Amino acid sequence: MEYVALDKTGKIYLPKAVRSRMDARSKYTILVLPDGDIVLHKAKESKNPLKEFQSIGRIEKPISEVKKEILKEALIEAGR
Fold first, then answer.
1. Which pLDDT value is given to residue 7?
2. Could you tell me if residue 36 is inside a domain?
3. What is the pLDDT of residue 58?
4. Structural domain containing residue 33
């Protein structure tokens, strides 16, 4: 797992391993969850982007369970 920090101007610098998996031509949305976690989500072409963005934050299960699932999937993708 890699860490990021804000610089003095508020910019976030992503590790090269993360940047290499992103498409520089794509747009991304940022979702701040109630517990302070931040999700960077690749934006999709949509007729109603606000409605789609609002639906991203609707979670039917406890956030602790969602975090465990995200970590599990990240470890699988990282080859661990």
1. 92
2. yes
3. 67
4. 16-77
